[in-house]
Amino acid sequence: MSDVFISYSQPDGECAHEMVSYLEAHGVRCWIAPRDIAPASDWAEEIIDAISAARVMVLVFSAGSNQSPQVRREVERAVHKRIDILPFRIADVLPSKSLEFFLSAQHWMDAFPPPREPHYQRLLRHLDSQLSAPVDQSAPAGTGGARHALGDAELLHIEAQLADYIGPLAKHLVKRAALRSNGAEDLISRLAGELTTETERRAFARRCRRLPGAQDRAREP
After folding, report:
1. pLDDT in tens, 69-117
2. Sheet holding 30-31: strands in order across?
């Protein structure tokens, strides 16, 4: 099965399929309807199976998906299955109350204004970081694999540096990424991918490494 489930409303089909083409050209396996629904199969059953098998749901978020009952059902199923959801916002639209309930704790990736290719590149980095983490079969679905070996002081320091760029979302992102990281350098690299420009990513990494012991701990076997 595919690693990434693409949720979208019909008016955003062109963007969704363009995104899939870009991600698959770079090695990310995607599931998208109706392309991946077998002929004569049960549509709802296929979608539920695909969501359950995915590691990440990318939600193409717009005014159309905001009002789509089908999208809401897919998001509800992903939350129930504890699948990570990444809203990819292609328009400056706030979520409806029904979606906000499920997505308030998620990291939102703004993908406007056009062109979209730089946003696809950032999405690809984010997904590569998530999908490269080993999956611990004993952990609950959607929580990732390896536990971090960083101290509280290091995590708080890294969170503070990230918060300077993206605000309160930093706490959620650091907590989630730490569960998948293998040391300080891996964690810093994962979080740097959340930033828009290479200049920001380099500055963020440099600031994170100022904490005494962070680099030495990352080199430990």
Report:
1. 999 999 999 988 889 899 999 999 988 888 888 887 667 899 988 899 9
2. 30-31, 4-7, 56-61, 84-89, 109-110
Helix (H) / strand (E) containing 141: none
* Whether 127 and 175 share a structural domain: no
pLDDT tens-digit series, residues 133-168: 665 444 444 434 434 457 888 888 998 999 888 887
Note whether 92 and 197 are same-domain residues: no
CATH no. for residue 69? 3.40.50.10140
Do residues 205 and 192 touch, judged by C-beta distance below 8 A?
yes
Pair 73, 111 in one domain = yes
Checking if the pLDDT of 219 tops 70, the result is no
* Rg from Cα positions in the chain: 18
Distance (Å, rounded) from C-alpha 42 to C-alpha 203? 50
